[in-house]
Amino acid sequence: MPNKILIGDILEIPTKKGRAYVQFSHYHETPPRMGAIIRVLPGFFPERPKDFQALADQKELYYTLFPVQAAVKRKIFSVVGHAAVPLHATKFPLFRNGLVNPQTGKVEQWWLWDGKQSWKIGQLQDAQLDLSIESGWNDKQLISRIEEGWTPRMAEAFVQAARLRTRVQKTPSLKGIRHFLLCNTKRIADEAKHLVETAKYEAEVIDNGSGFTVIVRQGAPLTEEYVESTTIRLTEIAIQSGGTYDAWEVAV
Fold first, then answer.
1. What is the CATH number of domain 155-251?
2. What is the pTM of this model?
């Protein structure tokens, strides 16, 4: 084990889906000194890649704060290679952050942080949904999110899925759930409805005056796993078609 982890080092992350990899790309030293930042790289591998530079040159899925030195020292993860940080990733990443409203599962006020200063921006524009979220994870959280396919754009879906899963735990008498996808145009709404129905859910499109809402009905069996996977799948469909996943409501 190296005495000190170096910028560019590649760590191997064992997951249920295969080997995953992250690269130590930045270290934040100015107060409040956030520490090491890693790039989470795409893909799962049955065997260790031979060309780590080709892997590192890819567009990262996202950045996150992670104590790489401690993880290697404790032999949780291992440094298995080294590669130059690609040009597109050398600049300190721009992060977003905000407090989740526990009643809605949504962040109502977002801030951006560039490593030196923070500024308020309110609601996010579509392109800003892909900005990494300023947060620090432990090794179990990192593995779990890599396995689940978590990305910053999908972050709210995972929060909503967790809220809905908790609701199902506490209310075994639930008869059904309605999910709402918001779309700016009828074309987008129709495409989302088609994808939803292809996924074997019932759906209808409602003109709400300022846009269109795709209402998706989910029935039994309302297991925790089913409602969680449905929320995440519907968010993927909304993104794919050009809309957004908005909310859910339950029928007792």
1. 3.30.70.970
2. 0.86
